[in-house]
């Protein structure tokens, strides 16, 4: 059984893997009695880095959350990092926008739950079996729920503002970018 070590090195580099990935290959192959050809792997890896270490690759990888590990040769790194920086900015802003959207959805669900609870409490008020003391407690509960609802509305308004700012920032970052 043999392997094309040049191709393996090339593919690892083209995916952004460091040449230290060879250690994992070596360990896996040892179990099957295969000896890696390190020179061929390294030559393939160097060629794969030429494909990987471009501005557009840095941009695309960073947008999907890739963490750069300093694998690009010095001659190619500046171009890669320029794209990576632009893509990373977009990734961070988009991640924050997604977090805000998730929080907004949670708020809306909580608001609906509170609305339902208020309606249920209001219906309890008209239950003829309730004592005056029980009705006062229900009024207090409704009052607390309305206060919570007000707090949620304020938080929602702030989230909407932040979401709008984040989406505007994303549009600005995309329009500035030369990599897509």
TrEMBL record:
InterPro entries in alphabetical order: DUF2799 (IPR021242)
Pfam families: DUF2799
Key words, A-Z: Coiled coil
Coiled coil: 90-124
Protein's name in the database: DUF2799 domain-containing protein
Protein species of origin: Sediminihaliea albiluteola
């Amino acid at each position: 059984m043999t392997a094309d070590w040049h191709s393996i090195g090339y593919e690892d580099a083209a995916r952004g893997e460091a040449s230290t990935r060879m250690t994992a290959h070596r360990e896996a192959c040892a179990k099957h009695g295969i000896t890696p050809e390190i020179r061929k792997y390294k030559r393939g890896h160097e060629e794969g880095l030429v494909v990987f270490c471009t501005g557009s690759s840095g941009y695309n990888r960073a947008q999907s959350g890739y963490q750069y590990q300093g694998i690009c040769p010095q001659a190619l790194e500046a171009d890669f990092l320029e794209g990576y920086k632009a893509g990373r900015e977009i990734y961070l802003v988009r991640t924050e926008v997604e977090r805000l959207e998730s929080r907004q959805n949670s708020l809306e669900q909580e608001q609906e739950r509170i609305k339902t609870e208020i309606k249920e409490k209001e219906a309890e008020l008209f239950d003829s079996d309730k004592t005056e003391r029980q009705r006062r407690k229900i009024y207090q509960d409704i009052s607390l729920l309305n206060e919570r609802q007000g707090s949620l509305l304020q938080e929602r308004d702030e989230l909407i503002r932040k979401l709008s700012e984040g989406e505007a920032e994303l549009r600005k970052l995309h329009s500035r970018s030369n990599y897509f």
